[in-house]
Inverse folding.
């Protein structure tokens, strides 16, 4: 069964061009970060069990380094556990989706 965490309160959609880094092979999961909402506090970075999130080198419009989703962390692939989604105080994790079937 597909797992999706997605809030419904956003006025605008996430800027995927700033937050996504596509790698091969096809990842197990997909996390969308709204880079313009992120304040770079790193709560999601330190709580992700697989280290799939990191601060980007670039800046958003508020002058913060927004988090990027890397798919393959130091401790394995994203499992779509949703911890980053629930821990973010600014609702900057726009969506967590498991790409696996079954
Ligand atoms: S869903 Fe879980 S494993 Fe994936 S990036 Fe978020 S905290 Fe890490
Ligand atoms: S917890 Fe939210 S605001 Fe903080 S770095 Fe992660 S995505 Fe950005």
């Amino acid at each position: 069964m597909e797992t999706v965490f997605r809030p419904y309160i956003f006025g605008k959609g996430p800027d995927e061009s700033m937050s996504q880094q596509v790698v091969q092979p096809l990842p197990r999961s997909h996390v969308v970060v709204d880079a313009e909402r992120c304040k770079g506090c790193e709560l999601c970075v330190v709580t992700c069990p697989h280290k799939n999130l990191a601060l980007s080198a670039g800046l958003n419009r508020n002058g913060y380094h927004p988090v990027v989703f890397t798919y393959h962390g130091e401790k394995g692939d994203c499992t779509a556990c949703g911890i980053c989604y629930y821990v973010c105080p600014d609702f900057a994790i726009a969506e967590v989706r498991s790409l696996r079937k079954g």
Strands lie at 4-5, 29-33, 53-55, 67-69, 72-73, 76-77, 93-98.
